[in-house]
């Protein structure tokens, strides 16, 4: 049984369906585990260190997630299931499985709703997506993702400790999806925290129609 404090951790996307929420539905993870998919916030860098300008007064990043463990924020325990390919999930479940796809259109507005259990001082949100021609039979790595985020939503106020009232986590927010994608892609959303070394990672499988 989970100890009570494990229910008081951080936050997760509750709409639309993420890989994390699907694993909860399947009974593989608890909500508290999906709330804790945190890893270094300077992704796609591989190393810990200062946050790039103009946010260098934010707490330095811890080590960002390793390739193959990006979708779980670097967690390699039970939460590793969100990194699984369809084949790995099928083997774990003992039956055929494919990650459900959210149908989207190129350039549409993608609306996200969060539930927070510990809404940290927030720098903002950063969005990555898989490259054209990515291989769904392999785990998500930096080589599978576009190098730069396709969208950023960052608060400009620095230093964070003088602006905590402005640096609030957003319960709902929108992003414009890329206009040039087709078919199945994976979106990786980072919630960037100003006063720790972490970001919280959430992943979505989408189908551009």
UniProtKB/TrEMBL annotation:
InterPro entries referenced in this protein's UniProt entry, alphabetically: Cellulose/chitin-bd_N, GlcNAc_Chitin_IntDeg, Ig_E-set
Taxonomic superkingdom: Bacteria
UniProt keyword Signal, yes or no: yes
Domain Chitin-binding type-4 per the UniProt entry, residue ranges: 10-206
Keyword Ribonucleoprotein in annotation: no
Keywords annotated in UniProt: Signal
Disordered as annotated region, ranges: 1-20
One Pfam family recorded for the sequence: LPMO_10
Descriptive protein name: Chitin-binding protein
Protein's organism: Pseudomonas vranovensis
């Amino acid at each position: 049984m989970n100890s009570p404090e494990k229910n008081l951790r951080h936050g997760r996307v509750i709409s639309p369906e993420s890989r994390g929420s699907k694993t909860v539905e399947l009974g593989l993870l608890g909500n508290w585990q999906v709330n804790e998919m945190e890893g270094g916030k300077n992704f796609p860098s591989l190393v810990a260190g200062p946050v790039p300008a103009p946010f260098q007064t934010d707490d330095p990043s811890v080590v960002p997630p390793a390739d193959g463990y990006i979708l779980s924020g670097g967690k390699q325990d039970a939460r590793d299931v969100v990194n699984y390919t369809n084949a790995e999930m099928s083997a774990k479940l003992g039956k055929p499985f494919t990650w459900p796809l959210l149908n989207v259109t190129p350039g549409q507005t993608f609306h996200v709703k969060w539930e927070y259990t510990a809404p940290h001082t927030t720098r903002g949100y950063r969005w990555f997506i898989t490259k054209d021609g990515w291989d769904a039979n392999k785990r998500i790595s930096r080589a599978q993702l576009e190098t730069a985020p396709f969208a950023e939503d960052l608060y400009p106020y620095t230093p964070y400790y003088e602006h905590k009232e402005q640096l609030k986590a957003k319960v709902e927010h929108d992003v414009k999806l890329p206009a040039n994608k087709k078919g199945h892609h994976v979106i990786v959303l980072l919630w960037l925290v100003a006063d720790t070394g972490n970001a919280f990672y959430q992943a979505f499988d989408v189908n551009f129609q």
